[in-house]
Amino acid sequence: MPSRMAVVLAAGKGTRMSSELPKVLHPVCARPMIHFVLDAVEQCDVEQTVVVVGHQAEAVKKELAGRKQVEFAMQHDQHGTGHAVQMCRPYLDHHDGAVLIVTGDSPLIQVDSISALMEMYDQVAPACILGTAHKQDPTGLGRVERDKNGHFAAIIEEKEASEAQRQLTEVNMSTYLFDCGRLCYALDRISNDNRKGEYYITDCPGILKLAGDDVRALNVLKPCETLSINTNAELALVDAEMREMGYGDEAGT
Question: What would the mean pLDDT of 75-83 be, rounded to a whole number?
């Protein structure tokens, strides 16, 4: 079976957290949130994990120094999620297999969800699979549009969505599984021709779809995985949810 690599995006400042602490080091259940992400990844037969660091990179590296199979890619200037993955090219260029991409600020990521994506990848070998979820209030999230046959058509960012598209409840939660070669193909073609002048990983599935590749959206993410952490209030909400789910007991709190 081809090998599996994971890329964990952890370079952001977390500006809305109003703290100098790197976003992924903010604690939930008394542990920096990125540890929960890495715990889940490690349980999914991933041979190599690359953590993309940037803001206070040395602090993140120090926190993760004791973790096995974790290497680092440096994103000195943050120019979007696609740019973050581009910083992993020294690793990607020597990899042949699947690449899981997740964010380091998603501590409620579930092993079952990742495993479902990997099971589909092993069965049909698509160029890309998005892990999606249905959210009753999808405000602020990219909508997943499907064609008349129910197949993935596009990720529509909310600011670009029509009124009908805004009514869609299936959302993209930045959980992807790519064939490495096709990921590199897409990374070479993403553009920063957008309002923020940044490169987005969300453009990659569309690039591959346009190239005629098999791109799929698998609705396997659980409701808890749609909880985002961008503010201290959201951090507190996720902390409470995780403690209710028993994570606090696991963390020894």
Answer: 95
